[in-house]
Amino acid sequence: MAAKEDILEQIVEEYLLHAGYFVRHNLKFRPRSDDPRFITSQHSNHSDIDVIGWHPKKTGYQKLVVVSCKSWQEGFNPAKQINAAQKGTKLGGREAWKSSRELWREIWANAFIREIEEATGTKKFTYITAATHVVGDRSIWENHLMFRKHLKGNPVKIIDLAEMMNFILPKLSTTVAGTEVGRTLQLFKAAGLLSKDNKLSV
């Protein structure tokens, strides 16, 4: 299954596995048709929760992490995303708010949280935006009051590819990794493409 996932989703999975989480991919959610705000043309299609990680030993908001992956080559610019979503304009040919609809629309947030509770038995989690790299100030995204309101007070975090790789690489061993990304990195290490401090040397 992992081979069919977006490459950033695979890296997120490898990152979470090394951190001790059990991982699920691509849980679908959509608003309930009996919600008085439900509009057939706007709310009939499912959206996806990219990755969920559950940790058997952690507590509180860290026990469950819910990850939305943004594998955009130009990077993730929180200020640009917020500005476009608030103005109702498009980015990359798509209305900006739709790339994180569970943050911007309460009806989608309710559906998002309901699916998480059905899958995990809890409404308490950390919402993570995983990006290739972050352009600008990430705190305006992490501290956005509307996001926290729509997610019922659950914290919002951003993590980028470099942070995940810096966590994964030192933990690689000769035991066959659980994902294709992990196995690829093990091959890089075996071929001498990683330096002694576990950084890419080419």
Number of domains: 1
Q: What is Rg?
A: 18 Å
How far apart are the termini? 30 Å
* CATH architecture term: 3-Layer(aba) Sandwich
Would you kindly provide a written description of the structure presented here, covering whatever features stand out?
This protein has 202 residues and is an alpha/beta fold. The protein contains nine helices and seven strands, in the order H-E-H-E-E-H-E-E-H-H-E-H-H-E-H-H. The strands form two sheets. It has a five-stranded mixed β-sheet, with helices on both faces. A two-stranded antiparallel sheet has the order 4-5. A hairpin with a 2-residue loop joins strand 4 and strand 5 (94-95). Helix 1 (7-18) crosses helix 8 (161-168). The longest helix has 15 residues, at 106-120. The chain is globular and about 60 Å long. It starts with 6 loop residues before the first helix and ends in a 12-residue tail after the last helix. The mean pLDDT is 89.
